[in-house]
Amino acid sequence: MVVWTFKGAKNNDFYQRIAPREVRHHPLKIQAGHYEGIGFVYLLS
Questions:
Q1: Does the pTM exceed 0.85?
Q2: Where are the domains of the chain?
Q3: 1-5 long-range Cβ contacts below 8 angstroms, 24+ apart
């Protein structure tokens, strides 16, 4: 599972604490805005 959020958002610490397998950086486009995104990858088992 990948959880995408904005880089630098207050919730980034929460997602980092629950031990992601991988962290991905990707630009996000929402309507006319461009934002830095960060994805936290987790293995669901």
A1: no
A2: 2-41
A3: 1/41, 1/42, 1/44, 2/39, 2/40, 2/41, 2/42, 3/39, 3/40, 3/42, 4/28, 4/37, 4/38, 4/39, 5/37, 5/38, 5/39, 5/40
